Amino acid sequence: MQPYALTVDKFLDHAAKWHGAAEVVSAAGSTLRRTSYAQLRQRAALLSGALLDQGLRLGDRVGTLAWNTEDHLTVSYATMGAGLVCHTLNPRLSITHLAAIVNEAQDRWIAVGAGLQPMLREICDRCPCVQGVLVLDGEAPDPALPARLQHAQLNRFIEQSGRAVPWGRFDENSAAGLCYTSGTVGDPRGVLYSHRSNYLHTLRSLQADAVALTANDSVLIAVPLFHANGWGMPFAVPAVGARMVLPGRSVEPAHLRMLIERESVTVAAGVPTVWLGLIDLLESQGAQLPSLERIIVGGLHCPDALLHRMEDRLGVRVQTSWGMTELSPLGTITPPQAASGSGPRASGRPPLGLDLKLVDAEGNTLPAQRGVVGRLRVKGPSVAERYYGDPTSALDEEGYLDTGDLALIDAAGNLTVCGRVKDLIKSGGEWINPKEIEDIVGAMPAVAFAAVIGRNDEKWGERPVLVVEPQRGQSPSQSGILAALRGKVPDWWLPERIVFIEHMPLAATGKIDKRVLREHVESSR
What we know:
Blueprint lengths: L8 H10 L4 E6 L2 E6 H16 L8 E5 L4 H12 L3 E4 L6 H11 L3 E4 L4 H9 L6 E4 L14 E4 H8 L13 E6 L9 E5 H11 L12 E4 L11 H8 L2 E4 L6 H10 L4 E3 L2 H14 L8 E4 L6 H11 L2 E7 L6 E4 L21 E5 L13 E7 L21 E9 L5 E6 L4 E3 L2 E3 L1 H9 L4 E11 L3 E10 L7 H8 L11 E4 L13 H10 L2
Parallel strand pairs: 1-11, 3-4, 3-5, 4-8, 5-6, 6-7, 10-11, 10-12, 12-13, 13-14, 23-24
Antiparallel strand pairs: 1-2, 8-9, 14-15, 16-17, 17-18, 18-19, 20-21, 22-23
Helix pairs in contact: 1-2, 1-8, 2-3, 2-6, 4-5, 7-8, 9-10, 10-11
């Protein structure tokens, strides 16, 4: 058979050749910028040559500190197509974390999006490895950026230095992207994606029982591109020639409604909190979104009450999923055609290309893999083998990665994540699983989100504290919450303290940031 390297530039090549007129729509406020896949491909190839002429070579890292815009997408394909590594930086991390990440990755250039140059200036002050800054989204370079750096505005850079170069002339196992975990438990850790792993992940996600996109779709990517490859959507959408809709910086409800209506969006992807705000807006205005068919949610556990509310109010099929940065990120997903029903919702099955197994606390494979809770491990060609800069393999003797999750797999193979191993609370020598409490409280109509954290206790070691974000306009009571829990969990699991907050702190991945919650609870004692 022909040698054919599985490199991600082929996704945009395919889109440009066979779906060249299909649009990429990018928002800057209420203004919509339009281009086609053919035009995007041409512009990205010119940028590739301009970057290589700065002395960048195969495997060099180019950081992106930017939002979901056409310019960010252009830089992503320009770097990866030329054999450079696109290192997506998360602007919701602290300056200290970002500077440490840039230094560890040794980023040589950084592309910066609208409104983020002040943050980049602080990062570059701590990062001598950075040599140049590419300014996106129509902004001019900030004169306050360090004088030692080369500064270039993207459009002018392409006009003055653009040179189209061939893409993909390197091994498919070459590095394509670098993304760091959110750091909700420990310090962020880097995951280095290869072209091959991204290509195979894209084929896996496009399966009919998974994301299942077609050229007839109009896809709103409301998940940030800096979150685990934007859930792989920047690859999957052009791979089928679907219209791509990028919301820019804002995921405010009115902005998303405008985009869905104007661009006849059929499929949207994002964390649950994004859709909660959109539902509230539509209910307050008595509006509907008739084009929208499916919403793919991930990142944060979505309470069943919210799932059913989304489906009833929006008239869509909600596909729940589970994944990790280390998985590129898709792990499991419910099929688009599955019946919604009114009961608890699992996170679906793994598409071809990923294997799961459950082990006990010592790492031994459980003899029964169905109907029992165990520690979840995963294996596949788009699963990390080790973390960036760490010479030690993260895999067990059978080649599986420890996810850190507790999970149950039902008789049909559907995965339900039952909590994080590190979140377990040891009270009086016995274990409390926070997720069981969170699921019960999160199902209450007056509750938007619930999280349980452990607090040090002199007598018991740890005791649970429940943090609740009420639904808008609702005021759940402590007594009502405790009454909902009694009889469903052991009495000694009942939280000794319930804290109500206006907004649950979320990491960029959409997961509840329990480190921030612990700090909040400690400071409010």
